[in-house]
Fold:
Amino acid sequence: MSNQSTPEIQFKTRKWVRPEDLNANGTLFGGSLLKWIDEEATIYAIVQMGNRRVVTKLMSEINFVASARQGDIIELGLVATNWGRSSLTMRCEVRNMVTRTNILTVDKIVFVNLDEDGRPEPHGYTEVTTTRDRFDLEHY
Structure:
């Protein structure tokens, strides 16, 4: 995928906002949401690069435009936007299913594929997979 056209984000992950996810104002704590985003982005990177040794290198500016309350269900969507030699860049959107509002967008999340010694390693991919074809037991 290239940077020339922005692929459509598909919302596949849902989280239920529970009491332990709230801040002092009774709304979704930003730290909880960022943890969920990083976890989902990590899983996406592992599947796409076929290696469990990936690290978050960069997360662009995060601008919260809405929130969620206890009991709301939020959706997280990710899409690969650029492939580097040893990296994968993706975009994330989060929306509230109950209020039907967008909560935030992260335009750029970069993950780096690592070798056994923790150094960047080429992953060899240039497009998204929708199957489990990249899980190589050698990397697990």
